[in-house]
Design goal:
Elements (H helix, E strand, L loop, with lengths): L5 E9 L6 E11 L3 E8 L5 E11 L10 E6 L5 E8 L1 E7 L4 E8 L6 E11 L9 H39 L1
Antiparallel strand pairs: 1-2, 2-9, 3-8, 4-7, 4-9, 5-6, 5-8
Keywords: Membrane, Signal, Transmembrane, Transmembrane helix
InterPro entries: Emp24-like, GOLD_dom, GOLD_dom_sf
Membrane topology: Single-pass membrane protein; Single-pass type I membrane protein
């Protein structure tokens, strides 16, 4: 059976580029295939790549002699970044030695159908040269001042309406 990893509720969060960019993906698959790879793009050298994998369901009972599954992470240059052997699940975190397409390959030695949940997160913390400059913040500061004035207007209207309502309540009896 061919293993097909399909992204499940893929969440992508991107805020202001000078503050932070992160991409989060969740995959799950059921497979009897001995090997399956997932590719994930890491934009910059030094980005933090973290995640986990868990065998959540399997057709055979895992006894102490079951070999588990293997995961190998390979950099864009073809170098092995890390390897886990014989695991039913684990967490990982590493700094990308370079930007580019990373390969996460699962190996299932027995080839028995197993469902693997795989989560990956690529985070980028910008350096001081990529942070917002004062000229980037000027339009934001103007908008904040406009919102402050609008809020003050709403607050004043609320005070007026409360006083009026109190007067009407007092004069009612």
């Amino acid at each position: 059976m061919e293993c097909v990893f399909t992204p499940r509720p893929e969440v992508e969060y991107v805020s202001y580029p000078w503050l932070r960019k992160s991409v989060t993906r969740l995959y799950s698959a059921s497979s009897a295939s001995p090997r399956h790879c997932i590719h994930e793009f890491v934009p910059y050298e030094g980005d933090t790549v973290s995640g986990n994998f868990v065998v959540v369901d399997h057709d055979i009972f895992w006894s102490s002699d079951h070999p588990g599954i293997d995961l190998t992470v390979t950099s864009p240059g073809g170098n092995t970044v890390n390897t886990w052997k014989g695991k039913s699940g684990d967490k990982f975190v590493f700094k990308a030695p370079r930007g580019g397409m990373y390969k996460f390959c699962f190996h299932n030695p027995y080839g028995a159908p197993e469902t693997v949940s795989f989560y990956i997160h690529v985070g980028h913390i910008p350096n001081e040269h990529n942070l917002a400059k004062d000229e980037h913040l000027d339009p934001i500061n103007v908008k904040i001042a406009e919102l402050k004035e609008a809020l003050e207007s709403v607050t004043a209207e609320q005070k007026y309406l409360k006083a009026r309502e109190a007067r009407h309540r007092h004069n009612k009896f």
